[in-house]
Amino acid sequence: MSAEYTCLVVEDSPMMRQLLVFALSRVKNLRVTEADDGVDGLRKLAAGRFDIILTDINMPIMDGLKLVKRVRSDPMHKDTPVIIITTEGAAEDRKRAIELGANAYITKPIQAPQVIAKVKELLKIVP
């Protein structure tokens, strides 16, 4: 029997969210939940348990860095892998995201194989 995984995608751009969800649909046994921004993401995290979180940095209301900080202080999700997906390619942003507890950082434009490989790596899904 295969394992069942859950993923939360937090992205304010509907088109980018759709691209991520489409890419993640190629990961077997992965159920994806979508959130519009950090606050929506926190609401969804409070309602259930997730195995991995993908989040953008630049979002209205609550950005991805604040979300990572909140996730790391949440006892239920403090160890959940977080992948930052953003247009910010600066080394400073990458360093800040990793310092806050993000596990990986992917720069847009995203490449589906890269996203899939990183999710599988962090969830320890063997091909």
From TrEMBL:
<protein>
    <submittedName>
        <fullName>Response regulator</fullName>
    </submittedName>
</protein>
<feature type="modified residue" description="4-aspartylphosphate">
    <location>
        <position position="56"/>
    </location>
</feature>
<dbReference type="Pfam" id="PF00072">
    <property type="entry name" value="Response_reg"/>
</dbReference>
<dbReference type="InterPro" id="IPR050595">
    <property type="entry name" value="Bact_response_regulator"/>
</dbReference>
<keyword id="KW-0597">Phosphoprotein</keyword>
<dbReference type="InterPro" id="IPR001789">
    <property type="entry name" value="Sig_transdc_resp-reg_receiver"/>
</dbReference>
<feature type="domain" description="Response regulatory">
    <location>
        <begin position="6"/>
        <end position="123"/>
    </location>
</feature>
<dbReference type="InterPro" id="IPR011006">
    <property type="entry name" value="CheY-like_superfamily"/>
</dbReference>
